[in-house]
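Usage

Read records sequentially. Each one opens with the input sequence:
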Amino acid sequence: MTQTSENVTWLTQEAYNKLKDELEYLTGPARTEIAAKIAAAREEGDLRENGGYHAAKEEQGKQELRVRQLTQLLENAQVGEAPASADGTVAPGMVVTIAFDGDEDDTLDFLLASREYASSDIETYSPQSPLGAGVIGHKVGEDAEYELPNGKKASVRILKAEPYSG
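and closes with the structure output:
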C-alpha cells in the first residue's frame, strides 16, 4: 500500500506516532514554556537591547516552523508497512541499489523515505529529491534519469529494490 504522489510521505506506525507525540508536545507544554520565557524577558525592560527576549522570540519562531512542518507531514502521511517487492518496482519505503551510468562498480544503496524516517545505518533520500523522483516507479534492471543541481541529466540503473526491514 504505497502512494507516490509528491505530497505523500510514507511512514511506519512507529515513526508516525513519534512525530505525532512531538507535535502534541510542541503545541502544548512547549508553547506554554516559550510563552513564559518571553513574558519573563519582557519584564526585564527595554526590548530593543534585551538579548533574552530576542532569543526567546527566535526560539518561538523555530518552534512554530516545526509545528507547521509536522502538521503538513502528518496530514499527508501514508502509514503502513514497507511495500512488498513482488515485482521489483521502486517505491517509498524500499532500500534501492543503483549503479551510476550503468557501472556496476560505482553503486549506491539508499533508503527511499522521508527524512523523518532516516536511519544512521543507511543513506536516506526523499521521494521528492531529484534522485528519489527519478527512480520511483522503475523496475529492477531498468535505467532511470534524474536532474543534477547544475541542470545536467544523470543516468542510473536499478540493481535492487527491496522492502526496508528497519
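Summary fields computed downstream for this record:
- The chain has four helices and seven strands.
- The helical segments are 13-27, 29-42, 51-75, 130-135.
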